[in-house]
Amino acid sequence: MDRLENWAQRNLKKFNKGKCRVLHLGRNNPIHQYSLGADQLESSSAERDLGALVSDKLTLSQQCVLVAKKANEILGCIKKSVASRSREVHLPLYSALGRPHLEYFVQFWPPQFKKDEELLERVQRRAMRMMRGLEHLSYKERLRELGLFSLKKRRLRGDLINAHKYLQGGCQEDGAKLFSVLPSDRTRGNGHKQKHRRCRLNMRKNFLPLRVMELWNRLPREVVDSRSLE
User: What are 139-187's pLDDT values in tens digits?
Assistant: First the structure.
């Protein structure tokens, strides 16, 4: 912090210290007080990072509430401004305007709690009910009729696709730094099973290499060896 302040003075610049806050992370954090120059910085319980509201407990519950509210507002605008209730009209509108809000940030940090998953899923249920001809069907039947996945299944599918890109060299980043593949020539299994990692905190189980591990190990060999995402 002192180096930042000295840099600003040398270059004749000023920080807007009213917008600078401290987000204390960690269970045993001593909660030190920080200052920028002569001004002491205030502590914060949640801050935005790349458009997502992350709390000091590293959960996205507040973010889920905000995006669910935003997506519901968009569905309300669609309902008021579009007279047609056909699936040919409403489905593209929901896919282009509503669902991206529900899926923003999820590959990096998906909803951790069931209440947050259900909150987001409830928005998609509402979107399905807005389409004529599906009122008598259950949520699963509506998805099957429209050829869609639930948001939870879309997140799982996205995780497996990202794991495939990392492990098969489809990403510029080195997947070996994220995943630990067990070298094996056994015919049983897919030959690219990930090493089981133990973690002390439940929060760490939410990281991509850990949450996708069990699903990846269940995939057949011809899937994980494929060079094509198709």
Answer: 999 999 999 999 999 999 999 888 888 887 656 666 557 777 776 655 5
